[in-house]
Every structure is written in C-alpha cells, then in structure tokens.
Design a protein that fits this description.
Layout (H helix, E strand, L loop, with lengths): L16 H4 L15 H13 L3 H15 L5 H11 L4 E6 L4 H13 L3 E6 L29 H11 L3 E5 L5 H8 L3 E6 L10 H5 L14
Parallel strand pairs: 1-2, 1-3, 3-4
Helix pairs in contact: 2-3, 3-4, 6-7
Bound molecules: iron/sulfur cluster.
Length: 217
C-alpha cells in the first residue's frame, strides 16, 4: 500500500480526546466513525454476555483495585480468581520452563489447579511438519518442533478455564490462541534478545535500536 493511501488512525493522533475528554476528536478518529448503535451493542456484550461480561469486569477490577501496585504475575492470579477459574493452563516455551514451573508454584499457593504443557510436547522433528533442514537452527539434527495446536488441544481436553502463555514464539502464540477453547492471556511475551521485554526495542529506538526503522527482512 502506498504511504498516502494509508488510513489515518490512533498512531497519527496527538489529542487523545477519547482518554481525557479535554480537547477534540481529530477528523479521522475511529470514535467519531463509530455509531451509537455499535457502541450500545458492544455495551450489551460487556454487560450481559455470559463470558465477555465476566472477563470485562474482572479485567476492570484488577486494573482498578491494584493499579501500579502489583506485578503481572499477581495480576494474572487475581484475574483468574475473579473470573472464577478453577483450572489454569500454563502454556510454556521450553526456554522458559523454569519460569513456568515457578508460576505453577504461585498458582498452587493460591489454591488454583493447573496443567502445564511445554512447547515441544509431541516430540516431532521439524521436518515431519514440513520445515526444511535448512530452516532448522541446527540443520541435519533432530530439532523438536513447537506444537501450539497440540498444546491447545491438550488444554481443551483438560477443560482449562484460563490459559496463560509463558513465552510462546511469535506466531506459535497466534496458533495457540486460534485453537484454544478457553480465553487466553499472556504472562510472558518472549524476546530472546531483550530477556522478554520486547518494549525495550521501542524504548531504545532513539539510539541503540534505531535499526528497527530500517526494512526488516
Ligand atoms: S480514538 Fe480518536 S482521540 Fe482517541 S487516540 Fe484514536 S484518534 Fe485520538
């Protein structure tokens, strides 16, 4: 798409009137473009849908009651309790299995049941799923494929109430979310370079990470 064809959106805004109601909406504002009818219909979901209303209220309560006071680990546990979750699916990357284990201890300490499934479950060499040898990190060797669809299926069979991602790869997380029956939240967004703080590349984009504005191939 040509640059001038791009539709303007919130990243082009400096007014943020939706947030504070102290300025005005820009012409391209998606709030202005949204009908009262659609907002009402969404409000119905937040207030009365059996799943959306519970999740929405729990998210608001976690934010409102402990804003800036507790870590995301604690927020996830509080959220789980507020939606009445009994069994938590911990969906772990093998590279973060120790952190996943620690998290299961937190769940245990809070009286929550859990099942933890690591990404290499199924033990299939990448070549079995069509990944060429040259696409492996170490070509010519057994290299277990991540298996997010299997992770989701196991969680679905276990009838988890909430699935928590601990560091799945980009894209594998997408497949897991697509195939998960239960709602999903992310505890850890994996970044192998920045020790799971992907925002650091954005914070550092003024100098050390200027390269992110170059074409990424
Ligand atoms: S919704 Fe409108 S006012 Fe809010 S950030 Fe987006 S463009 Fe700006």
């Amino acid at each position: 798409m040509e640059k001038n064809e791009r539709c303007l959106s919130c990243s082009d805004c400096g007014l943020y009137h939706c947030d504070k109601q102290d300025k005005h909406y820009p012409e391209f504002c998606p709030t202005v473009a949204t009908s009262e009818e659609e907002l009402r219909e969404i409000g119905e979901l937040y207030m009365h849908d059996p799943t959306d209303s519970v999740v929405f209220r729990a998210a608001a309560a976690v934010e409102g009651e402990t804003y800036g006071k507790i870590t995301r680990v604690e927020e996830v546990v509080r959220f789980a309790k507020k939606i009445g979750a009994k069994k938590i699916g911990v969906v772990s990357c093998m590279g973060l299995i120790n952190e996943a284990k620690t998290f299961t201890k937190v769940l245990q300490a809070n009286g929550l049941d859990y099942i933890c499934i690591a990404c290499k479950t199924g033990a299939q060499d990448k070549s079995k799923y069509g990944i060429p040898e040259e696409g492996k990190i170490h070509p010519g060797q057994y290299e277990a494929s991540c298996n997010p669809i299997l992770q989701a299926r196991i969680m679905n069979r276990a009838k988890t109430d909430l699935n928590v991602i601990v560091g799945l790869c980009v894209g594998h997380d997408s497949l897991f979310m697509k195939h998960s029956d239960a709602i999903v939240t992310t505890l850890v967004a994996k970044d192998r370079v920045l020790l799971h703080n992907p925002a650091a590349a954005l914070y550092g984009s003024g100098f050390y990470y200027r390269r992110i504005f170059e074409e990424i191939k």
